[in-house]
Amino acid sequence: MKMNRLLITGILCAATIGGYAWISKSNEIKVDKNLTIKVTEGSLDALDHMEIENLLKVGTNRFEKVVFSANGVLYEPTKYDELRGVGEDVLENLDVFRNHPYGRSLITTDNQLVMVKFNEKFPYASNESSVAVHIKNLQTGQVQKEESMISEINASNYIVNETLHEVAGAIYYVLCIHHEGKEKYFIYQVDTKKAQLNFVFDMELAYQTALLKSDQENLYFLEQLEDNTLNFKIWNAHTKTITEQEIPVNPDDQLTSAYPIDFILNEKYTIFAYSLAQGLKYCILDRNSLQWIDSFEWSHVDENFGVGLEWTMQKDQLYILENVHTSNERASFVSIYDLKGKKFLLKAQLPNLTLTSYQWARNEE
Description:
By secondary structure, this protein is mainly β. It has three helices and 27 strands.
């Protein structure tokens, strides 16, 4: 009897080990880690202190961050929720994002994480035009959660977008709604001690706006007027007032009736990105003289396409990631343009990783 028990135990152990081996093998995914960037012009040395990041699925619910730099490729284990499409910034702060997993209006300061999200159920499943304000103290881990009612919004309004901006030492929540054929913006200051919103300013702009950027002092609202000219409305965080700046007409015939899909600016340049038939065109405006000083393009496709643009500017260099979608394929490209020398420092195609889009990151080393 004792021998039978030992035999049965041995069989069960072998079956269990075999089961674990089978499960482990089923979790494996064939992954190509020989990822390379195909350089067509310039050198990867131009990346310098910048890095390009994406995600790679390496097993069931297992992911790695892929980091491309001037020194090569690095793979790092990371967290990612494939169902909800959120990464470590959310998964490591679930105490902030719980019940708001898609809340992307997020700012991290030196000692706080601030998340603000408009009521996603409004107006169909809820008549409350409320905004959740969640603030986490990064030193203590304490989370404060409050709701602010937005009396300026009613059920007939369509929410276009919501963004957070850190300007002049304060955090501002900007809510854009579609209102009677135009776009209306509401600016609120976030009280980070009480987790509340305080109304500051509102204004109505031409319908095709929806482009908003900020710098250390101002919010920049870009609107297209009826004659297709462009106009900046600039809100200053110190004076709480608006000034206007008309953008001179671009002499490029290709852009006669085109509206930029995005813009970026620093103290020297304002750069507009236009979507043309075969790719994006970038036009550079000198911020001091308000003169068009350069333009460039790099065509990737010969048919209708969509593009996700991720770009940033460091002094006189423009870093561009284009995540291009056509009817037949998806591809990603990186380019670095020297604004002072008016030339490309890098043109390259990135490996086709489809889980998420490529993003820029700064190498602090």
